[in-house]
Amino acid sequence: MNTIPKFVYITILFISLLLVVTGAVRKPECRQNSDCPPYFCIKPTVPKCIKFKCLCK
């Protein structure tokens, strides 16, 4: 009888931690195009520094 609330509690805790971790992924800050890491974008696009954030263009 106690296992169902414990399972629900652990599930909610795990999902909230997962959301916090994935929300922490941010775009790197930059001042010029060379500040953007080359692995930031998939191959057809190139990382560019736009408004002090690295974006794929």
UniProtKB/TrEMBL annotation:
GO terms for molecular function: metal ion binding. The keyword Signal applies. Transmembrane segments: none annotated. Keywords: Signal. Residues 1-54 form the Late nodulin domain. Residues 1-23 form the signal peptide. This is Nodule Cysteine-Rich (NCR) secreted peptide. The lineage of its organism: Eukaryota, Viridiplantae, Streptophyta, Embryophyta, Tracheophyta.
